[in-house]
Amino acid sequence: MKHVSLACLFVIALALSGCTGEGAKELYETAQFEERQNNEAHAKQLYEAIIKDFPNSEYAKKAGERLAQLSQSK
Predict the structure, then answer these.
(1) How many domains does the structure of the chain reveal?
(2) Secondary structure of residue 50 in the 3-state scheme
(3) Is residue 30 part of a domain?
(4) What does the pLDDT read at residue 13?
(5) Crossing angle for the helix pair 58-72 and 40-53, nearest 10 degrees?
């Protein structure tokens, strides 16, 4: 029984560990914050990371749109 409990705890810990990393949404929100702080260079880096690391997400599309808008504003 003790081994089953330990196995269950291990599975739960594994599942939760996947939730702790920054996903596309978190990166996008951070990039928006950086824009509001007038740190455009870092915002662009974050948008590029979203496109690279999460190419099929809705945030990749949004990040591409923001990059285009930021490029036009120069």
Answers:
(1) 1
(2) helix
(3) yes
(4) 47
(5) 150
Query: What pLDDT digit, counting tens, does each position of 17-66 carry?
Result: 444 346 999 999 999 999 999 999 999 999 999 999 999 999 999 999 99
How far is residue 19's CA from residue 41's CA, in Å, rounded to a whole number?
28
Nearest to 52 by CA among 66, 43, 63: 63
What would you report as the CA-atom Rg of the chain, rounded to the nearest whole angstrom? 18
Would 34 be classed as within a structural domain? yes
Could you tell me if residue 54 is inside a domain?
yes
Domain around 74: 22-74
Examine residue 8 and state whether it is found in any structural domain, yes or no. Answer: no
The reported pTM is 0.70
Confidence band of 73 (pLDDT split at 50, 70, 90): confident
* Residue 28 burial (C-beta neighbours within 10 Å; 0-12, 13-18, 19+): buried
